[in-house]
Specification:
- The protein is 49% helix and 15% strand.
- It folds into 2 domains: 68-215, no CATH class; 218-303, no CATH class.
- The protein is built from 11 helices and 6 strands.
- It has helices at 7-35, 39-53, 56-59, 71-84, 110-114, 118-138, 144-163, 170-189, 210-215, 236-243, 245-250; strands at 194-195, 202-204, 221-230, 258-270, 273-285, 288-291.
- It starts with 6 loop residues before the first helix and ends in a 14-residue tail after the last strand.
- The chain has a 4-stranded antiparallel β-sheet with strand order 3-4-5-6, with helices on one face. Strands 1-2 form a two-stranded antiparallel sheet.
Length: 305
């Protein structure tokens, strides 16, 4: 399996890869908002994002994390800025005006100034193995706090070893992480030989993914909601959500904002055969449904192949 970008062609295709990632994120965000009008569609979209490509990272766009934040802004505020402004006594939510973080040009060393993309590709390639280890360590993305914290700490270490300086920006962090998420998905789905339409450079080599090995080359996943139950405030899940009030506060919301809670069971099938069953609690805030992620366990979805 190709673990990362081919370093010899990285500089030439970086623009197109990042553009493709941003386009995917835009589509995912739009789809998440559309699905938010139905508890069942919200639950299925969340499960599907994880199952199709192991992408628990983007699955959070369907959750209450994204209720009052743009998802990227939440990641910046809680996990990127504390790293970038580590020497400034920065605390979450502080005004960054006047702060000199590692994103300042003064931290750029010679290798950063002269990199044609090759060293950046080396960092991304090295970080993929670490990302894959985190997926095993945390059994997916349920503990996103652990994943983000560990990943960005290691990224700073790896980048400093490669470039010889402490320069770090949110763009560098997003590019590395989202590239690794994409490659992790390809380890499951496999890849085809692909060539960039503008340069003619090969951007992907045919590989066989874990899903193809487990379910056949022409496998197909389908999703079916087998049970949907509205839960009253006396049911245990409401209490469990309330136990995570501190976490909800980081999303700028609380249990008082939630008017309804549904228990949705999503059955995942491969070629018509059931391979996993996932319970998803979804809550209604105003007119939109969100996956209640503070109590969910999706670890089984990362073990289907």
């Amino acid at each position: 399996m190709k673990k990362g970008f081919n370093l010899k062609i990285y500089a030439a295709v970086t623009f197109f890869v990042i553009a493709g990632l941003l386009a995917t994120i835009t589509v995912t965000t739009y789809t998440s908002r559309y699905n938010g009008f139905s508890p069942e569609k919200t639950a299925v979209a969340f499960v599907q994002s994880i199952v199709e490509t192991g992408d628990g990272y983007n699955a959070y766009k369907n959750t209450i994390v994204s209720k009052n934040y743009k998802y990227g802004d939440f990641i910046r505020e809680y996990y990127m800025y504390p790293v970038i402004y580590a020497e400034c006594d920065y605390e979450i939510g502080d005004d960054r005006d006047g702060l000199k973080g590692y994103n300042d040009d003064s931290f750029k060393g010679e290798k950063t100034l002269n990199d044609d993309g090759t060293l950046s590709g080396q960092v991304i390639d090295t970080m993929y193995d670490y990302y894959a280890k985190l997926m095993k360590k945390y059994k997916g993305w349920d503990n996103y706090d652990g994943v983000f914290t560990d990943y960005f700490k290691e990224l700073c270490k790896v980048r400093e070893e490669v470039f010889g300086d402490k320069y770090m920006t949110d763009e560098i962090m997003f590019t590395a992480l989202e590239s690794n998420v994409r490659t992790y998905g390809e380890s499951l789905t496999g890849t085809e030989d692909e060539f960039d339409a503008n340069t003619g450079i090969q951007t992907s080599v045919k590989t066989v993914g874990a899903y193809q090995k487990a379910f056949g080359e022409d496998y197909k996943f389908t999703y079916e909601v087998t049970d949907t139950v509205i839960l009253s405030t006396s049911n245990a899940p409401w209490g469990k959500i309330n136990d995570n009030a501190d976490m909800l506060e980081t999303y700028k919301t609380s249990i008082d904002d939630m008017s309804e809670l549904f228990y949705v069971v999503v059955e995942v099938k491969a070629n018509g055969k059931t391979i996993a069953t996932q319970t998803v609690n979804v809550v209604k805030i105003k007119s939109t449904w969100y996956v209640e992620n503070t109590t969910i366990d999706t670890s089984a979805l990362y073990e289907i192949a």
